Amino acid sequence: MSQNYKGSVAERTTVTRDLENIANKTGNIYKSLNAIAKRSNQISAEMREELTKKLAEFASSTDNLEEIFENREQIEISKFYESLPKPVSIAIQEYLDDKVYVRDANETVASSDN
Predict the structure, then answer these.
(1) Measured on CA atoms in the order 53, 58, 64, 68, is the torsion positive or negative?
(2) Is 108 within a domain?
């Protein structure tokens, strides 16, 4: 495990998970996987936005062949993001660590009219 992206501790390699452990939090494996998928999409969007901002700093208006091949900082930033755990691994770990709140959209909220 590694602690890389915003303090998350997630596996970088494939790990077999106990589905009962995942399903216990919501009582339904599909609800749990849906919550993990939505969180994974959020993490992916955050990472993509952050990487785009960092790479935009190196963008140049002129395309010089020497600059393209010699931009080491841009290459290092890209390698760093490639080495991070996948967003789904981070989302699963957050879910198992109770850092993800799951609510049922079909549940009605008690109104204050009563």
Answers:
(1) negative
(2) no
pLDDT in tens, 1-42: 444 456 566 777 778 888 899 999 889 999 999 999 999 999
104 in any annotated domain? no
C-beta of residue 93 within 8 angstroms of C-beta of residue 50: no
pTM given for the model = 0.73
Domain range enclosing 84: 2-96
Report the number of distinct structural domains present in the chain.
1
- Structure confidence by residue, pLDDT tens digits, 57-77: 876 666 565 555 557 788 888
71: burial class by Cβ within 10 Å (0-12, 13-18, 19+)?
middle
Note whether residue 6 is domain-resident. Answer: yes
> Is 102 inside a domain boundary?
no
